[in-house]
Design goal:
Layout lengths: L2 E10 L2 E10 L10 E7 L6 E4 L1 H9 L3 E2 L1 H10 L1 H13 L4 H86 L1
Parallel strand pairs: 1-5
Antiparallel strand pairs: 1-2, 2-3, 3-4
Amino acid sequence: MPVRIRLQRHGKKGKPFYWVVAADSRSKRDGKFLEKIGTYNPNTNPATIDLNVDSAVKWLFNGAQPSDTARAILSYKGALLKHHLEGGVRKGALTAEQAEEKFTKWLDEKAAKVQGKKDGLSNAQATAKAEALAAEKKVNEDRIAAKKEAEEAAAAAAAAEAATAESSEETTSEETTEETEA
């Protein structure tokens, strides 16, 4: 029975969520599987991968062939590296302690890279939010300034209108006084 390590799709339309499984290569994509090795969620940034590395290495030693995407996931989480190092231990090129030391060193470096990416994304998000807030403040200040200008213009127009009304009353009152004198 040829075994493949592959992805099984779950989740709703447009929001995929995958299980990483060891399955018979003849079974359907979302059908029977032998063991669930982990999960993969591409909807987050960076993608969330939860993988049982020891189980994956066990299946690799038993001859399971990963699909292209599963191979990328196994490589990203270090399962292929651990498989390689354990092969060296079996051949006698390394001791188990040396292999474990190399693997933990690699995991630490990988965790630092992932954390750096997360920090960069959060900084970019915070910067974008600050820029959006500054732009919104500027728009509000411009709107308030335009409103004040409009009120001042309306007050000036009202004052001018009142002044012209007053002067026209004076002229009409002068005309009426002249007519009464005559």
